[in-house]
């Protein structure tokens, strides 16, 4: 139509550039990404090599002591450590230095396993500090050092205490007596002598000690019970020492028995009972606590009995044998009023004391004695009455 512009023709599409070498052929497909590919199997990891445990150093030696000393050598002795480590013990190292310095010098060039060693080629008169170490693959132990320095000099005779035979057991004295002990010893040069009581120094107000070249004197002028105990004697020459123990016991009479009472009376016999004394006098009672019994003079007849008569359980107890019929006393042996007063005045003597025996409420009777109820009880037989007193 006139006056209408024609529609513009579309521009021809420009063909895209084709990859070289392909021409009109279609493009090859792209390779898949690496994440899509299956994983390749990995070789197994190598197992870690086992590590050997680290070796530990040993424990230190113990009980280091001087065995002998001469004018140019010193011999040592000690005990092996309790812990030597898993690698075992390689040996010991001995070191020494002059007293007052810190210049430690090894006494042995090579390690050794013996627990004894002698340091030679020393100078007479030197004072040496000595120590010992244990060695293994883990290193050296802490050193064990002698408590005191060693003086290098000749000891002609080692110290030795000659304890007398009577002092090898408990030495017993009574209160108020004198304790005078002479104990010889040997040692050259002259040893140092020291006394102690149960680890404590002696009381100079109670004990006097005099030391000589060949003996020592232990002296107590008036013994008391507090002087009882264990005394230690020590003599020493440098590091060499000898000890002895002296056991001293000071005793005195025991106290009186307690709770004494009359259990029963039959015929001319009495049964008694008591309890042991509280104070045994610092010694065991003899005869398992059996006392000494005595008869006292009767007030009605003071001239008939003038001394104490001792009675023992075995000699004064007249008991009927088991299974036998009791023997009935004759009328002549019945007690009179005078005999009754005599038996009711019985007293007990123990260590010089006479506690009064209370009057027994038990009536006089005949027949066998009662059985003892306690170890501290028995029967006492009295004297037979004379014909004049029996009527």
Name the descriptors.
3 helices, flat, disordered C terminus, 3 domains, 4-stranded antiparallel β-sheet, mainly beta, 4% helix, 32% strand, 6-stranded antiparallel β-sheet, 391 residues, single chain, Immunoglobulin-like
Radius of gyration: 52 Å
Taken from the alpha-carbon principal axes, the silhouette is flat
* Percent range of helical residues: under 10%
Order of helices and strands: EEEEEEEEEEEEEEEEEEEEHHEEH
Number of domains: 3
Task: Outline the secondary-structure elements.
Layout: E1 62-69, E2 74-79, E3 91-98, E4 105-106, E5 116-119, E6 127-136, E7 139-140, E8 144-145, E9 150-151, E10 157-161, E11 171-174, E12 179-188, E13 192-197, E14 208-211, E15 215-220, E16 229-237, E17 240-251, E18 258-266, E19 269-275, E20 292-294, H1 313-316, H2 337-344, E21 347-349, E22 377-381, H3 387-390
């Amino acid at each position: 139509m006139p006056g209408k512009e024609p529609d513009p023709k579309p521009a021809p599409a420009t063909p895209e550039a084709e990859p070289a070498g392909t021409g009109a052929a279609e493009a090859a497909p792209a390779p898949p990404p690496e994440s899509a590919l299956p994983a390749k199997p990995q070789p197994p990891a190598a197992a870690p090599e086992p590590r050997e445990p680290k070796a530990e150093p040993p424990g230190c030696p113990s009980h280091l002591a001087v065995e002998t000393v001469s004018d140019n050598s010193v011999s040592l002795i000690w005990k092996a450590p309790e812990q030597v480590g898993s690698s075992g013990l390689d040996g010991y190292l001995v070191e020494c230095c002059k007293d007052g310095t810190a210049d430690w010098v090894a006494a042995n060039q090579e390690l050794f396993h013996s627990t004894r060693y002698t340091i030679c080629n020393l100078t007479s008169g030197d004072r040496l500090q000595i120590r010992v170490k244990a060695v293994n693959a883990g290193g050296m132990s802490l050193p064990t050092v002698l408590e005191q320095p060693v003086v290098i000099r000749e000891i002609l005779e080692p110290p030795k205490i000659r304890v007398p035979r009577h002092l090898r057991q408990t030495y017993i004295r009574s209160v108020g007596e004198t304790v005078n002990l002479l104990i010889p010893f040997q040692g050259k040069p002259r040893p140092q002598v020291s006394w102690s009581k149960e680890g404590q120094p002696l009381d100079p107000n109670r004990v006097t000690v005099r030391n000589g070249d060949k003996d020592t004197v232990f002296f107590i002028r008036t013994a008391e019970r507090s002087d009882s105990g264990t005394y230690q004697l020590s003599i020493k020459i440098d590091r060499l020492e000898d000890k002895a123990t002296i056991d001293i016991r000071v005793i005195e009479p025991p106290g009186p028995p307690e709770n004494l009472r009359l259990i029963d009376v039959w015929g001319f016999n009495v049964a008694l009972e008591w309890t042991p004394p509280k104070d045994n006098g610092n010694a065991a009672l003899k005869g398992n606590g059996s006392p000494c019994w005595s008869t006292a003079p009767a007030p009605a007849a003071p001239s008939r009995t003038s001394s104490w008569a001792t009675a023992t359980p075995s000699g004064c107890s007249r008991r009927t044998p088991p299974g036998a019929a009791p023997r009935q006393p004759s009328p002549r042996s019945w007690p009179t009023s005078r005999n009754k007063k005599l038996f009711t005045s019985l007293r007990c003597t123990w260590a010089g004391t006479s506690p009064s025996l209370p009057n027994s409420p038990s009536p006089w009777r005949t027949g066998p004695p009662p059985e003892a109820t306690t170890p501290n009880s028995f029967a006492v037989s009295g004297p037979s009455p004379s014909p004049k007193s029996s009527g």
